[in-house]
What does this fold into?
Amino acid sequence: MSKTFFAMTAVGKDRPGIVAAVTRVLFELGCNIEDSSHTILGGEFAIILLLTAPDGVTRDRLETSLREAGSPLGLTVNLCAISETELTRTKDNRHTLPFLISVYGSDHPGIVYRITRHLAEKDVNITDMNTKVIRKNETTTYVMMLEIEIPSEVNPSHLTLELEAIGKDLGVQVGVRPMEVAEL
It folds into this structure.
């Protein structure tokens, strides 16, 4: 039995029932969610799914069904076919170490750019990133959390010192620590 692989995104105003509406369609069509991420940014809900669909479930059928379910909820749905190799995240052949980076400080433009530019220059891969501005009274604090993969040729201690120096220049605190990965 062959399967077709898809990446799906949907965005719209946050409200209860969005995930249930999307997953109902997938369940009824016999699709399987392989990987997913859902979040609320401001008042907007965003979801991205990687999924498999059984034989007979075409892109058009799946997209039509998802749009019909999402329309009453104000969702904009996009669907694209992907290859099986795109479905499973493939790493290159180099050895990497998982780390977490936390950034805290006064909110201002350039924080994300300066940190991520440095990571890119060191060939460090960002596997997950979240940012948030926390407002309390008249104070705003910027928070950024990154999951990264440091290539073995990059010294984590040196990278930490470099990021801390960039943080000092930006007026934010940068923390870097190894991420514990559970083996399943």
